[in-house]
User: Which sequence fits this backbone?
């Protein structure tokens, strides 16, 4: 185990350090340090973001919101911009870890960690997020669905880092978020479900039931075609479950995950029907 | 000794824990906080195979790592290569040519200049193991084809034969049957196992560490090092939780560290990381049980027949005595004329379970209370009424035919929970909730338990304790006991007893860390026995010293002994009103060379026990408890939330009411973890859930908002001031009450704990 820690104070310095071999960026360290201790990765250089100026802002950029790479979950939970324009994001962030974890962990760290159970990913997928990448060749933006390639896999290349994530405001949509863990707090999702609904527009995303967080586009289109009124639940369900391909793991079986998603969907739409009527 | 009297100085009052401040401000020294000059750090090499023959240990690569001091194997053990207190079936370090019997078997100890080096080197040791098929379930073990040990996988069988069950069933109107399974539970103490063994100035070894039973550690180290007990001194460091997990296990940890200290001639420190701790240390035993109960129409229990199989894992460790408690508690807190119980201990190629708060009883109390709930439902008898009809009272006989003559608070606890829960109203409230909710259902669960205090008939030879009390020239008092503080509050209650008996202020009393050099073997700190045993020993010593101080007081003042009162740091002649402070009196006593130190020794009268029939006085006395729990089950996810709980405990006499509340709160939450969350998962005998990211224990958010605790007092004449134990009974009723509440909420019987969301959802979906 054993590594050197670097504390760059500017993006330029950071970029230079990133060209070194076997280096890892650390934001809050709540994923990184756990993986190092478990021996899953073995970097010999840790580049901490803690001394870099800026990049800890949440900014209103017209119809989108930009979250810098040093923004922690706690900072986000206290942000008026997010409270007003992305209630779904707050619903998800409240469910992350414990106060200690929320004080250290960052949204961008959650994104780069690319876990199908990452709670902030559900609102990001639902809000058509783009990941702002900076590297030797300058800045590029990738839709989150292209950025996250699989469990723990991203489109980041050598020398690149993530500056921020940008995503659509969703204040006028009705948000629903369900997370099922092994207990009520400090639990990794074994199945999660996020919805944004506005009239006959629906966006729907699942967590922990596929290699990445997934959007159920076919179900979204079906909803639109049905003018926002689902008469045959089975047909809608079928279009949702196409995206649900869970595995058995240490936290739950594939059967359980699928069953829970079905039940949550049913009760979400029961709730919605009652609300609309 | 008849000790029931009315004292009012300190006993029964609200006292701040004597060890609270250092534990809050960080001054307390736990095992990992101790450092010695030239100390080596140790790391263990595990077999990491379920079953096989160890062919070779290759240590070359490890020895090449700079900073490694040595790698020690079976060849480096100077004494017996043997661990375990009861059955001699467990090696300290597995020898080449011998069997590996589970994943966590220890093969070698690495000693190095730093912890990191020791760990790195341990990973470089390669083992050649010829694998054998492993026995991973109770069912497989019972086939007895592949053997974990010769000559059989089922070496232990304990039984009760009371009355005639066939007759009892014949005279029953209804017969109920059920099959149950209770899984492992990890003790999950905050502080992992840790020991330091140092060569000392007495030409022997001093052992420091986190533990419950210093005398077990002393025995084990002496045996492994081939030395005598007077060359091994054991000092308990502050202990961050134990729950039974530090009963026998620290003996093993100390033995590994002792091998390193002996061979290096240097202090050797062995602190487990959480993964090693969970992979290699004891758990609560999984128990599979089958129940058959015969009742009359009215709900009177006529006969019970029980078969229980417990998974002992690869080595028997404490299982034979754990089984005794399973046996005695299997039929619950009820007066049943015909009882037949068979308990079998089964070897498998898995982690050896051992002691855990409740010691083999919560598994069967869950089962018998599920049966009681089923009977209450099917016969439409109120669950509290059914229990009142059948529970133990003064003059009743337990399942082992033990005639109870005093201190039976069972009925009082049942009446108490009915009152504090507002039973009728609670039932209506839950009904109303269920009428207005679709996705969530609530249920009310009742449980009622008894719990044998101390070691009982199976451990009588260990049931005695000493205490050394010494008054210093400045009026301060040293108390040394053999029982350990592990967070449960032993030091506080012992200080209270000493203060009560001596009349000195509690702040002037120092209850020291146990040290085998000062107090004779006082048995283990287990079985909810410390208040009774160390407490009585302290009381004997302190009251003897008080007599001497009264003599000095009478000499000085001319008072008559019967008029002397004590308390609040002074002695008083109630007739003349003359007072002398404790300090002044002690000064006078010292000038007269009075003997101001005393050793108390407390043991209980021997218990009559017929091991063949399982009949007789199983324990010196029993604690009783009743509990009501309200749960809410989410029918979409199978998740359960405990909404409310009411619990009542007969403790004999509440010496330290604050301490009791703390114990019951902790016991409740630990019982709730067992009932709902804690699911140890395996793959080929290897534990997968070896840290708290996957082994799920309750957090503060899982604790019900309403947890009402009440105490009833039915004094035990031989307990100090009438007290019995509370440490374990605090947990016992909870798993059963929660399981019953879920069953009522979903309308299906919970037959397995933990009742995880997945298990509950499957039950809901069935049929
Ligand atoms: C006890 C505990 C509970 C947890 N509970 C939850 C939970 O409920 N829900 C949940 O979603 N997660 C949970 N997590 C996981 C973790 O806290 C989150 O994923 C968190 O958001 C990670 O952020 P971080 O800043 O700590 O990331 P870090 O650990 O610092 O980094 C994570 C990864 O991202 C990389 N990285 C970080 N920032 C950048 C950047 N700017 N550019 C490029 N790469 C970068 C790092 O190199 C690393 O590979 C939990 C973790 C712990 C330890």
Assistant:
């Amino acid at each position: 185990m054993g590594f050197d820690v670097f504390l760059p104070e500017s993006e330029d310095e950071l970029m230079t350090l990133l060209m070194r071999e076997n280096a890892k960026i650390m934001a809050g360290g709540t994923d990184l340090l756990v993986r190092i201790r478990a021996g899953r990765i073995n970097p010999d250089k840790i580049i901490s973001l803690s001394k870099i100026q800026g990049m800890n802002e949440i900014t209103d950029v017209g119809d989108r919101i930009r979250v810098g790479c040093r923004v922690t979950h706690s900072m986000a939970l206290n942000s008026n911009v997010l409270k007003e324009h992305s209630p779904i994001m707050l619903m998800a962030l409240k469910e992350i870890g414990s106060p200690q974890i929320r004080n250290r962990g960052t949204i961008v760290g959650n994104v780069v960690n690319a876990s199908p159970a990452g709670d902030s990913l559900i609102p990001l997928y639902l809000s058509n997020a783009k990941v702002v990448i900076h590297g030797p060749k300058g800045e590029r933006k990738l839709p989150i669905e292209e950025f996250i390639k699989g469990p723990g896999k991203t489109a980041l290349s050598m020398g690149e880092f993530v500056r921020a994530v940008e995503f659509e405001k969703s204040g006028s949509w009705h948000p629903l978020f369900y997370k099922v863990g092994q207990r009520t707090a400090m639990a990794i999702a074994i199945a999660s479900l996020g919805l944004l609904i506005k009239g006959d527009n629906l966006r729907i995303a699942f967590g922990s039931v596929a290699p990445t967080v997934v959007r159920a586009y076919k179900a979204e289109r079906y909803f639109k075609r049905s003018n926002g009124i689902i008469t045959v639940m089975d047909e809608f369900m079928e279009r949702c479950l196409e995206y649900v391909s869970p595995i058995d793991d240490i936290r739950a079986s594939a059967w359980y995950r699928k069953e829970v998603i079905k039940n949550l969907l049913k009760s979400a739409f029961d709730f919605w029907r009652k609300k609309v009527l | 000794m008849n000790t029931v009297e009315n004292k009012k100085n300190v006993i029964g009052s609200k006292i701040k824990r004597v060890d609270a401040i250092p534990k809050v401000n960080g001054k307390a020294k736990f095992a990992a906080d101790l450092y010695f000059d030239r100390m080596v750090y140790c790391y263990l090499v595990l077999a990491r195979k379920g079953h096989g023959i160890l062919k070779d240990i290759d240590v070359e690569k490890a020895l090449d790592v700079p900073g490694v001091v040595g790698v020690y194997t079976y060849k480096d053990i100077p004494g017996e290569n043997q661990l375990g207190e009861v059955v001699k079936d467990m090696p300290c370090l597995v020898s080449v040519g011998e069997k590996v019997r589970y994943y966590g078997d220890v093969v070698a100890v690495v000693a190095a200049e730093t912890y990191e080096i020791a760990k790195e080197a341990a990973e470089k040791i390669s083992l050649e193991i010829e694998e054998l098929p492993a026995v991973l379930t109770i069912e497989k073990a019972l086939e007895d084809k592949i053997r974990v040990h010769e000559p059989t996988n089922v070496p232990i069988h304990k039984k009760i034969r009371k009355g005639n069950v066939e007759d009892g069933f014949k005279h029953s109107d209804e017969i109920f049957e059920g099959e149950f399974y209770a899984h492992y539970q990890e003790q999950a103490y905050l502080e992992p196992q840790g020991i330091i063994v140092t060569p000392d100035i007495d030409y022997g070894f001093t052992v420091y560490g986190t533990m419950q039973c210093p005398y077990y550690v002393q025995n084990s180290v002496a045996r492994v090092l081939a030395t005598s007990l007077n060359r091994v001194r054991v000092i308990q460091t502050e202990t961050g939780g134990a729950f039974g997990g530090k009963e026998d296990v620290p003996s093993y940890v100390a033995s590994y560290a002792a091998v390193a200290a002996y061979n290096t001639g240097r202090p050797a420190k062995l602190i487990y990381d959480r993964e090693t701790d969970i992979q290699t240390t004891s758990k609560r035993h999984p128990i599979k049980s089958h129940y058959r109960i015969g009742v009359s129409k009215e709900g009177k229990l006529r006969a019970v027949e029980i078969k229980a199989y417990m998974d002992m894992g690869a080595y028997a460790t404490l299982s034979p005595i754990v089984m005794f408690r399973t046996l005695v508690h299997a039929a619950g807190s009820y007066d049943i004329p015909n009882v037949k119980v068979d308990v079998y201990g089964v070897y498998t190629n898995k982690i050896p379970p051992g002691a855990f708060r409740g010691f083999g009883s919560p598994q069967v109390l869950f089962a018998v209370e599920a049966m009681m709930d089923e009977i209450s439902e099917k016969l439409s008898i109120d669950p509290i009424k059914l229990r009142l009809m059948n529970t133990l009272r003064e003059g009743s006989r337990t399942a082992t035919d033990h005639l109870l003559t005093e201190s039976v608070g069972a009925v009082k606890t049942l009446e108490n929970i009915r009152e504090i829960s507002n039973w009728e109203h609670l039932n209506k409230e839950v009904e109303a909730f269920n009428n207005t909710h679709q996705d969530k259902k609530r249920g009310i669960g009742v449980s009622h338990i008894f719990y044998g205090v101390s070691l009982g008939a199976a451990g009588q030879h260990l049931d005695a304790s000493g205490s050394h009390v010494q008054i210093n020239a400045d009026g301060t008092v040293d108390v040394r006991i053999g029982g350990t503080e592990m967070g449960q509050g032993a030091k506080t209650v012992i200080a209270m007893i000493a203060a009560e008996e001596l009349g000195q202020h509690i702040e002037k009393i120092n209850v020291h860390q146990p040290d085998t050099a000062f107090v004779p073997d006082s048995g283990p700190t287990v079985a909810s026995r410390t208040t009774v045993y160390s407490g009585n020993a302290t009381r004997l010593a302190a009251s003897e010293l008080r007599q001497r101080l009264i003599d000095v007081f009478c000499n000085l003042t001319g008072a008559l002994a019967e008029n002397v009162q004590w308390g609040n740091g002074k002695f008083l002649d109630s007739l003349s009103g003359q007072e002398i402070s404790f300090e002044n009196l002690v000064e006078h006593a010292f000038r007269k060379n009075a003997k101001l130190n005393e050793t108390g020794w407390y043991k209980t009268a021997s218990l009559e026990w017929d091991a063949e029939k399982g009949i007789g006085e199983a324990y010196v006395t029993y604690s009783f408890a009743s509990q009501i729990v309200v749960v809410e089950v989410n029918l979409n996810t199978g998740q359960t939330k405990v909404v409310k709980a009411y619990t009542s405990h007969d403790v004999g006499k509440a010496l330290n009411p604050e301490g009791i509340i703390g114990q019951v709160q902790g016991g409740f939450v630990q019982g709730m973890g067992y009932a709902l969350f804690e699911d140890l998962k395996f793959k080929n005998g290897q534990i997968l859930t070896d840290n708290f990211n996957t082994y799920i224990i309750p957090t503060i958010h899982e604790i019900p908002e309403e947890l009402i605790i009440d105490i009833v007092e039915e004094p035990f004449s031989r307990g100090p001031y009438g007290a019995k134990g509370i440490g374990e009974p605090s947990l016992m009723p909870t798993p059963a009450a929660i399981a019953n509440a879920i069953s009522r909420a979903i309308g299906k019987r919970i037959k397995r704990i933990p009742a995880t969301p997945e298990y509950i959802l499957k039950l809901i979906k069935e049929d």
